[in-house]
Request: fold
Amino acid sequence: MSMSLYVQNRELVTPGQLLCEGKASISTPTTVYCINSKCYSAVVGLADIEGDKIGVIPLEGFYYPKVGDVVIGVITSVGLTSWEVDIRALHPAVLYASDFLNRPLNPGREVLSDYLDIGDVVLAKVENVGRGRTITLSVKGKGFGKVCKGSLVEISSAKVPRVIGRKGSMLQLLTNECKCEIIVAQNGRILIDNCPSKDFEEIAILAIKKIEREAHISGLTDRVKEFIIKEKVRRGLFVG
Amino acid sequence: MGKGGIKLIEGNLRHDGRRFDELRNISMTVGVLKNSNGSAIVEYGRTKVLAAVYGPREPPAKHVLLPNRAVIRCRYHMAPFSTHERKNPAPSRREIELSKVIREALEPVVMSELYPRTSIDIFIEVINADGGTRTASITAASLALADAGIPMRDLVASVAVGKVDGVLVLDIDEVEDMYGEADMPVAMAPTLRWITMLQLNGVLTHEEFIQALNLARKGIEVIYNMQKEVLKKKYLSIKVEE
Amino acid sequence: MSVTPSSEYVVPKLKSEVMISMLSKGLRISGRRVDEFRPINIVKDYIPNADGSAFVKLGGTQVLVGVKFEVGSPFPDTPNEGNLMVNAEFVPTASPVFEPGPPDENAIELARVIDRSIREAKAIDLSKLVLVPGRRVWNVWVDIYVLDHDGNLIDASSIGALAALMTAKLPKVEVRDGGEVVIDKNVKTEPLPLNKAVVTVTVCKIGNYLIVDPDLEESVLSDVKVVVAVSEDGLITGIQKSGHGYLSEDDVLAIMNIALTKGKEIINTVKNILTT
Reply:
C-alpha cells in the first residue's frame, strides 16, 4: 500500500493540481477527485494532510447543508402550512408549521405570519436533505426558533471552521475576550448577543471579519487575540 | 506581403515586433466584481474580456433544469464599443456560435454532477476586441469559475495559433487574423491533457496542423501557469511565523 | 445564451452497452465498420425554381440544399468579389425535438461551419462573380433545409451544398450602360466558377472509439465530435470540435488522418454520382 504525495500540508493548491498517486483516503470528496489512482484538487484551497487522509479545504465556496447542521435562516416566504427560509444554500429550505408549533396547525384559525413573517430570523437545525432540492429545517430543541435580538454577521461559509477553530479554541477566544454570546452557524451566519457594550460588539464583529480575510494564514489565533487587545486599548476599555 | 498591403512578417519578427512563438502581454485579475460569485478580467494584448460566474443557483427559467446535474448557461457578448465599428448590441450569429463553443470548452471540467437542478451561469463581455476574444474568454471564464469555488477537474487555458504569410505564429491579433491564412483557436485542460475546444478558420496542410497544435500547447502551458499564479496571489500575503 | 441541452432522446442502457461492446471489436450495430459511411444518395436539380439544388439521403438523414443567385452590392472590404451566404434551417419535420422558430445554436453552428469550409478553401472563385466592379456582384445564397434527422446533419448538408454548387447555373445577365444589371431568370448560362470541391467529415467519439458518420443513436451516445472540412487536394479547410466532452491529442491526430482519407473518398463519390 504505497502512496506518493506531491503536496505539503497547508500548501495552496489550484484546480487540477496533482495531490497524490496510489491508494489514498480522501477526507473531502467534494473538493478532491480521482482518476485511476491519481487524485487532484478540484478547487483553490489548502491541502489538508493528516496521516494517510488527504483533503483540500476550499478557500471559496458556498454552503452545502448536511443533516444536523445548525443554521441561521431568514424567512423569505409565508405559505399555508410552511415557511420558505433562505439559508444561503443552493436552494431555499422549508420549515413546516407543525415542527414550529410542535402540533398540527389549525388552518382555519391560525395564520402563519402571526408566528414568523418575512424577514424574521430563525435558528434551526437541518433535519433532512432530500434528493433534488428539498432541505427541511427543524426548530425543535432548546434555543432554536425565532431570534428576536442580537446582531447578525455574514461570512463565507468556507471560513466557518476557522471562526470555530480547532476544538473550538477560536470561538472560545472570541467569547472570552469580547464577553458576548456568539453562535456560529454552519451556513456562514453568526449571531452576536448580550455584549457588555456596543464597543465589545463591534470588536467581535471586526475580529470575525479579520478571521474571514486571513483564514488561510497560520498563527491566526494569536493575531486575533492581539487585535482584540489593541482594539480594547484603543477604545479605552481596559480598566487599570 | 499579406493582403491589405501590410507586412505581417519581417525577417524573424511579426508586425508588432513579436517572435513567432511569443504571446502578447497577458494580464489576469480575479475577484474584480463584488456581486458575482466569481469573476476575472483577462487581457491578451489589447483584447480585454470580463467574465462573471453566478451559481450554482436556481435559474429563473425552471424548465431548463436537469435532474442529475447543473445546467451551464454561457453568454459570450461583445460590447458595442469593443470593436472598430460600433457593434449592434443584439446577439449576432457569431456570438451565438461562440457562446456554444465556449460553454462546450468548459463543460468537461466543471463537476456539474455535484449540483443537480441548479444553474451555473457564465457571462462574458468583450470590452475591447483585438483578436483572440474567444480564447481570452475561455481563460477568463475558467478563472471566474475557480474564483467562485466551483469544483473543476482542471483549469482550462486557451490560445489561438495563426498562419501568417505562410508562417505559423502564436496568439494572433486582429490584424494577423484578418490578413492571415489560418486562425486555429485551441483550449486545453493542461494537467489532464484534454482538448476541450478546437476550431480552424482557414486552410492548413496536415503537417502544418500538427505543428500548430504543438505550438498551441506550448502557449497554453504558459497561460495555465499564469492562471495558477493569479489564483494563488489572491491569498498569498505576509507570511506569519507559526 | 447557450444552455446545456437536455437529452431528449434516451438510448436504453441495454442497447448502449451492446453498442459499446461491439465497438470494442470494431463493429457497429448497423453492421458498418467504424470508418464506413452510410450509402450516399443524391438527386440533383431537385428544385426547379432554384438555380442549383440537391436532395441528399445519408441513411435516414434527408437534407435539401438550394442555391439561389441574386444581384447585390459587394461588401465594403471586398469590392471585387461576389458574396457567399450560407443559412441552415432545422425544419420541425425532421425531429420531435425541433421547434419552429429562428435557427438555434446548432443550426447556426452548422451553417457557419459549412460556410467557412467553402469560403476559406476558396472553393468558389468569388472574384469571377463581379458584374460591375465595385458596384454590382453576384450573391450566392446556399440554403440548407434539414428535413429528417438520423445523425450527421453536417456531412449530409455539406454533401448537398457541394452537389448543389457543382450543378448550379448562373442566370443570363445583361449589364447595360449606366451600370444597370438585368437578369433573365429563365435562361441559364454557365456553371458557377468552382476552384475545388470541399466536404466535411464528422468523426465522433464513443467511449474510447472513433467512428465516422454517426447515426442518430450514435450521436446521442457520443459526447464529443469533430467536424473536419477537407478539400480535394488534401488540405484541411476547417475544424470544429462540438459537444460537451473532451479529446486527447492522440484522438485529434487520429481524427485528422481519418478525415483526410474519407474526405477524398466522399468527394469522389459525389463527383461520380453527379456525372452519371
Q: What stands out?
A: The longest strand of chain C covers residues 136-148. The helical segments of chain C are 13-23, 105-120, 153-167, 216-221, 249-275. The mean pLDDT of chain C is 92.
